[in-house]
Amino acid sequence: MRLLAAAGLGTLLGGSFMFPAQADESYSRDEVIAAYLYRFTNYIDWPQQAHGGFVIDVYADPGVARALRRLLPEHPIHNEIAEVREVRSARDLGEPQMLYVGEAHADFLREVASDANRHVLMVTNEAQGLDVGSALNFVTVDKRVRFEVSLTAADRAGIKISSELLSVAIRVHGGRRQSGHLCIRLGLAQDDDPPCSIREARRGSRRSIY
Question: Is 2-182 in CATH node 3.40.50?
Fold first, then answer.
């Protein structure tokens, strides 16, 4: 599936999170998700610096793992080339800074999330990813990849997510930032409530995220 324009992916890999107004569907889903995973690292604070380099573990999505291996040599994380590891079970996990889990693996997510000693950023592409312990979950809207955030899961892992990243999330759950504080129209009836209209009017003077 093709999801994001070439210019849009280039911007995503650049200095800020911005989304293109139009998409010519030039990049694959795996490439777009890999670009997001890389960019997330610039907006996350882990409780301690990585020892021995930055590690991204990938479970049940070899396409994303391959895309990361192509991308990361030219885009260091914390001034080092990140390591990408594919894992087959929770027992295979070492101490990665980030874990990306492919679709339809809620049981695996629950098992990993139940370990309170892990300071790992869990990123998913799951229908109810936030409900099973993910901190960042991808959703597709109008053939474009977006993401939602659980501050509850991030806090549990001891991870801090920057306000800049929160400002472009499609939804934010938990903590002081609830989804009601962010208003991105999805064509739903609930988007037409007065508070949403007010928030969009206030946001009009800010940089567009589309």
Answer: yes
